Each structure stands twice: as structure tokens, then as C-alpha cells.
Amino acid sequence: MAIQPGVVTPPSPRVNHVAFRSPSLLQLPVELLDLIASFVPTHRDLVSLALTCHAITYIVIPAHAAYRTIRIHSQRGPAPWATIAARPDRAAGVRCLVLFDQSEEGRFLPERAPSTALASATSSMKRRRGAWKAHGGGWNAESLEAAASAVRVMPNLHTLVFSGSFRRCGAAEMNFWAAVAGTNGSLRCLEYAQPLRAPTMRSTTDVRLYPLWAVSNLTSLSVKHAAFLQHPPSVVQFSRVLRNSPSLESLTLAVHDPSFDLHVLLDDVCLPHLRALALDILAPEAPSNARSLAMLLERTPRLQHATWKHLDPGPLSPGALPALRTLHVEDVPSSPGATGRALLRGGAALESLGSIRVDADALEALAHMRGEALCRLEVTSFESIAVLVRAVRLFPRLRWLRMPAVDYWHEHLPVTPAPVHLGEWVEVLAALPELEVFRGVSIFRDPESTTIEENDERACDILGLCSRMRQVEHWDLDPARAITLAWEGDRVVWRVEEVSRTDGGFA
Questions:
Q1: Superkingdom, according to UniProt (predicted)?
Q2: Among 167, 107, 164, which Cα is nearest to 131's?
Q3: Mind listing the pLDDT tens digit for each residue in 375-391?
Q4: Taking burial as the number of CB atoms within 10 A of a residue's CB, which of 12, 26, 336, 434 is the most buried?
Q5: Which residues in 360-489 belong to E strands, given as ranges?
Q6: Rounded to two decimals, what is the model's pTM?
């Protein structure tokens, strides 16, 4: 700017220049930042770390995020496992590994693995798929050997899920479980599931040498229909896994074998830290199972969540299971069975209860519960609508209620002896002002057979009775869909939405 005569220019303000300094973390060498990222345990936490800045993103996303959780289908063959095994520096970051086949596709899809690993299997996948289906799916020896090689370079593996059957694997099966047992003691959660009619385990020269028995220090164990549970000598050895996991907090067992003896498995097992137990034991030739289950329950004072199916435990001592908060019993006479009703009469402070037959005897047992504690209730059948109303009135804070999904006017048997008119459910809802989810009873009608205005009126009536209601049954009784309700200003809106089993099922 030109200086004009007679004009005094004020002095320029003083500017203090401050040098920008990057955070101390970013001043570390890239190799150390890479090492720090390797200790972040979950994919969720890795993403949070990556979002802090671009510099961290370039380290976390390509090198670590793809390796925390890996899910691979058996039809991929050995190629992806060989790719993973070739990078032990990255495989060391794997915390959760899922191997599954066609029997659990709906549960574990989509696959998840480093793009290089899946790309390595893409070229040969179409050729393999035909041969794989021709042999009935499952895991073959070549794939298992490759998977074992990958597991050997996963020293920080925390969770392993194996689902599927073995196809003439022989030594490969042994090598795979040997690799699992040798994961540097990091494994804490193991889930092993096979098809319901898995081939019986072949006897070896010495069943004690099967490497799975060496797994120890688990906190969560789930075994469903494993072939070795149909082999009594193997059951004896499998109990070593339980004895060597004294800190076990969650145990799930599913066995449909007529002669399975729970006593052989649990005879000298003590699980003082067990908090969740789920048993599906269908073994009519072994009546001692009821007493064995009772003895286990007596030794688990911290148990909070108990589920058993096809099996009613023997009598429990007064005051047993003081920490119990969830009880779910299926396929036993007069559910929740004699032991379940004894627990209710003992004043249990349950938060979730199912599946229960509501009759006069059950009503008497329910009356002894701490009614203000129960939040979730699943009913399998009821003596009459009047008895059902008396039962739900015991639980004024109930937020979740599930009834059997049937047409209560035309197909009410065997849920209840007499048909139930839609208007009679009003008394049930009126007794539950805090109810949020009501499944099993179709209150809405198919829009093709009624008017939108009529369904709008029903939505208003429901929220008039239960102002917190957010989900009710779909008119087709479809377990995968529900009708959601909400207030928008001064009007009620409803819509059909997809729901998961977690939303609409018992938990």
C-alpha cells in the first residue's frame, strides 16, 4: 500500500509464531505404531483407533483390520489358509477364527478374510464347488491341513468356531486340533458343532492321544452334536477339558444320543465361576442324567442363566442357584418342570422366564416369585385366558411377552383348550402398562383384507393400552417380520420391519 503524506500508519500487530508439533504418538517409528496396533484386540476398537487420524488409518486398515476376525467356508479349499500362513506377522493379529460349511451357512455368512486370501481361492473355487457338493460338503484332509498350518501362526487366537463335518480326514483332523491346542495358551472361547447325524468317531489306538483333550483354560465352551460325544471313552477324556478350565463361565452342550451319560462327563467337574449353562440332552436310556444335572447345579452358586431341554434335573436343595436370573426350559412335562417350579416357589428373582405352561399349578408357583423383577416371559400354553391374565398381573414391569404364534380363533389347540377372541387380549395388554414387545398374537390384519384406517385404529388402541409398545406380531405370524409402532407428534405410525431372532426370540 502506498504511503500518503499526512497519514500516520499504525504499527503492525506483533504475531507470535508457534511451531506445530504432532502428537507424541505419531512421533514414534512406523514399526512401533504397527506393533502397538497389533495389541488392539477387536475389529471395533481397531476402527476407532483408525478414525483418530490419517496417519494411523494408513497403518491399521490395510495391515490389521482384515485380520482380527476371519471367517472362511470349507468350499474355499486350502488356498486361503496357505495365504494366511505365509504372513505370520499378520496372522499373529487374528483373535477370532470361524471355519464353517454348508450346515451353518445361514449363521456365518458372509465370509470375512484378507482380500488376498479370498482372491487366492477364487480362481479354483468354481472347479472345487462341483466336487465339494458331490461329496456332501464338509471339510477334507487337504483343507484341514492347510487350516492347521495357519492356526500354528496365530499365537494370540482368542476365539475358535468350528462348524461342519470331516470327510475322511484321518491324520489331518488330529493335526488341526493339535494346532488349536498349541496356540500358546491364548484360546479362551471354543465352539464346536457338527451336523445332527455326524458319523461316529472312529476309535484310535489310544483315544487319550486325541489332541482336543489338551485344550485348557477356556472361559466359554460350546459343543453341539460332536461325534466324540457318541463315543463313551472319548466322553471320559473330554471331561479333562472341563476339569482343566476351572474359570469356565459359559457351557453349552447338545447331545442327541440314547445312551449318553452326563455323569461320565461331569462326575468330578467343579465349575465355581460358571454363569451361563445351556444343555440339550436327549438320552432316554440314561435316567441318571437328571441327578447328574442337579449335582452340577448344586456346585455352581454363581449361575445366572440356565437353559435345559429334554431333561428335567433332580431335586435341588433349598436356596440353590441364588444368583439365577434367566430360566428357560423346553420339552419337559409341565414346563418348566418340577425343579423349575420349585425354584419359582423359592422366591427366585428372575428377569427372564420361558418356556412355561400357565396352569393352576404354575400360577401358584409364579405367585412366589419377586414379580417386580421379571422383564421377559415366554409362554408355551395356557389353561385359559382368565388364568393367563392372573399370571401376567403378577409381573407389572414385564417388557417382553411371547405367546405361541397360532391363529387363536381357528387353530388354538394345543396351546389352549378354547378359542380366544381378539378382544380378549385387551385384558392381557391392560395388565402390562410397561410392555414393549408382544409377539405371537396377530392383532393387525392383512391390508389386502381390511382397510388401512382399521389397522391405524388398532395401532392407536395398542398404544392407548401400552404407551411403550414398540413391536407386535406380523399379521402372517412371520417370525422374521414384525410391526413396529411409534408416536410421530400427535399421531401413531406403524410399519413392517425385518427382525432378527435376537429381537423376536427368547434371550
A1: Eukaryota
A2: 167
A3: 999 999 999 999 999 99
A4: 336
A5: 376-382, 400-402, 437-439, 471-473, 481-488
A6: 0.87
